[in-house]
């Protein structure tokens, strides 16, 4: 289509994603290198109960076909945990397929009965605690993988389509990379909306400002004061994949402001996605505080 430089294909049922659609990715460069391909479960037994009309082997072969056409393709998916009859073995099969595909992003939910569906006639025999525990495990691993993709983008220049105002900050615009990752950036040029622009990727601008502030304070022995002064800005910084890398510094700031609950949340989040750097002064302080009675 003349004048159309980027096309985003939203989603497809894996059973309906035929070879002719795969070939479109070879012939239409305007299609973004991202596919949302819901699998729901990594267990063939559960997929059959869900009446999904495909198994994991067919799903993985489809992934391989797409990646052969577009090696840089990113994938997202949907998952349901705790479907009636789901065993530990079934859940492990879901975790296994996450490792095989390495989804860029995903949506995951606890199963709940819906009226007038085949599953509503099945016994909901998985306890709420087991469902929640499984969801936590799944989401933790999905977040770890997404974090890895985010860190690889930091420092790179991405050709992005500017979509409109940022949902996080009305002073920023929101864009999407060719792999459909959201990028928020500061500008007062609203004419960029609808345009393709090159953007160099950095972590949260507010966080960058804080890091510079903390580094300056550290050199001048004003670190504790700096952490106390930074609390208002900290409260607006989300625990996103781009920001988790600064978990120790953020947690330490919360500790200096006597907000131990938020500090613990950032410590646990940081340690769940990144190996602890034992040489970091922040990490050593945090581990000491975390093991003390003050934080337990």
Describe this structure in words.
With 296 residues, the protein is α/β, with parallel strands linked by helices. 44% of the residues lie in helices and 14% in strands. It has 11 helices and 7 strands. It has helices at residues 19-27, 44-50, 56-69, 88-101, 128-153, 205-219, 223-229, 231-234, 247-256, 260-273, 281-290; strands at residues 34-36, 74-81, 105-110, 157-165, 172-176, 182-186, 196-200. A 4-stranded antiparallel beta sheet has the order 6-5-4-7, with no helix packed on it. Strands 1-2-3 form a 3-stranded parallel beta sheet, with helices on one face. Helix 4 runs parallel beside helix 5 (128-153) and helix 7 packs across helix 9 (247-256).
Give average pLDDT, whole number. Answer: 81
Which strand order do you get reading across the main beta sheet? 6-5-4-7
* Beta-strand content bin: 5-15%
Work out the radius of gyration. Answer: 22 Å
Distance between the termini: 60 Å
The unreliable regions are 275-282, 290-296
Secondary structure tally, helices: 11
Principal-axis shape equals: flat
Tell me how many strands there are.
7
The SSE string, one letter per element, is HEHHEHEHEEEEHHHHHH
Structural class: alpha/beta
Task: Report the sheet with the most strands, covering strand number, pairing sense and barrel closure.
Answer: 4 strands, antiparallel
> Helix coverage percent of residues?
40-55%
Question: What order do the helices and strands come in, and which of them pair?
Answer:
Blueprint: H1 19-27, E1 34-36, H2 44-50, H3 56-69, E2 74-81, H4 88-101, E3 105-110, H5 128-153, E4 157-165, E5 172-176, E6 182-186, E7 196-200, H6 205-219, H7 223-229, H8 231-234, H9 247-256, H10 260-273, H11 281-290
Helix pairs in contact: 4-5, 6-7, 7-9, 9-10, 9-11
């Amino acid at each position: 289509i003349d004048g159309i430089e980027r096309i985003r294909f939203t989603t497809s049922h894996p059973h309906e994603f035929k070879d002719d659609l795969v070939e479109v990715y070879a012939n239409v460069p305007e299609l973004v290198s991202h596919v949302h391909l819901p699998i729901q479960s990594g267990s063939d037994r559960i997929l059959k109960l869900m009446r999904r009309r495909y198994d994991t082997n067919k799903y993985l072969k489809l992934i391989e076909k797409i990646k052969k056409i577009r090696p840089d393709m990113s994938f997202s998916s949907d998952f349901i945990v705790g479907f009636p009859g789901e065993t530990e073995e079934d859940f492990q099969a879901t975790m296994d397929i996450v490792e095989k595909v390495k989804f860029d992003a995903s949506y995951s939910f606890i199963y709940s009965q819906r009226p007038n569906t085949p599953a509503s006639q099945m016994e909901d025999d998985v306890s709420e605690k087991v469902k929640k525990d499984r969801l936590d495990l799944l989401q933790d691993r999905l977040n770890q993988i997404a974090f890895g993709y985010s860190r690889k983008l930091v420092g790179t220049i991405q050709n992005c389509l500017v979509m409109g105002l940022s949902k996080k900050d009305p002073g920023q615009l929101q864009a999407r990379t060719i792999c459909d990752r959201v990028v928020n950036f500061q500008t007062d040029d609203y004419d960029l909306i609808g345009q393709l622009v090159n953007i160099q990727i950095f972590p949260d601008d507010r966080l960058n400002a804080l890091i510079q502030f903390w580094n300056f304070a550290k050199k001048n022995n004003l670190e504790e004061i700096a952490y106390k002064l930074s609390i208002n800005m900290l409260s607006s910084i989300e625990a996103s994949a781009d920001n988790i890398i600064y978990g120790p510094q953020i947690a330490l700031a919360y500790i200096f402001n006597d907000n131990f609950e938020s500090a613990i949340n950032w410590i646990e989040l940081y340690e769940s996605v990144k190996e602890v750097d034992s040489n970091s002064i922040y990490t050593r302080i945090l581990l000491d505080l975390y093991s003390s009675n003050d934080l337990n």
